[in-house]
């Protein structure tokens, strides 16, 4: 596609028209944000920061193709889409599908992706106010996939109302799991600990004592309190995490500066300090209802520091600020011991080749059954007391 915009389908009878734009510069931020809702990851500012700083841009294998639904010239729906030449930064793994295509002499890449780059957080993907418009967007994305002659279309971490529209439009649904903490009215951290069984409560207290004995104290910074020095230290920690895993980071310091400047209230930075000097950091984001754990790193190893900085401080922040939920990011069965329980997620997929679509549908059915059994097994290891009691100050 060479034109900056094009119509992938004819006008709808009610004067709703679908077009595609390659840049959010053509979209009014207020109209976009009114559809995106409160979650910061779908905001015009967040997505623009990813593109403008080069983190999610064509040279990195992320080519934006925003699907827009307008009615009487006003934005009535939108769908963030990317033509991808790889599967990195997605957190829903389809490498086996790509290998199967290659074994049969077919190209899996490029593919079309509906997602927030580098962000495994469930939320709106079909940005619209009605079910009918969400179905329009889902079908329009299929037609765009066909017009671009791509192998497939993948919608990652859609919310429940999007899933219903995607299924109506003919997508296959894949089941997944993440680990989230829910605030059931604990009041404070001691009350949360009292709800855990004896062994888990004792282990968390022991780990926290080790971190404190190492001279570590914590600071929470939000908004204007996150100065350039603190942000640069966090980014150095973030880069160190990737270096320790023999990998390269996706996000730049410029990107995080843009977030701090454009979405200051959405950022919550946890600093782990010794004698006033930071040694580790975790960056979270919030929409005022939930806290989303995103990135972390440390400049030295301290036993228990990772779990404390990334998870327990997040839970404590939620309790202190009355937030309903803490989402600890993708994967990680170890999170269960800290009170984060298995929570269903999903993705949706449309495969152009009918033979592969049928094979993948069969695979997803079997994988879905296994995922249900896996979640049930994880739930059996929940760390909470069987009597359901919550007694602050219960001795361990």
Automatic annotation (TrEMBL):
<dbReference type="InterPro" id="IPR016181">
    <property type="entry name" value="Acyl_CoA_acyltransferase"/>
</dbReference>
<dbReference type="Pfam" id="PF04339">
    <property type="entry name" value="FemAB_like"/>
</dbReference>
<dbReference type="InterPro" id="IPR007434">
    <property type="entry name" value="FemAB-like"/>
</dbReference>
<protein>
    <submittedName>
        <fullName>GNAT family N-acetyltransferase</fullName>
    </submittedName>
</protein>
<keyword id="KW-0808">Transferase</keyword>
<dbReference type="GO" id="GO:0016740">
    <property type="term" value="F:transferase activity"/>
</dbReference>
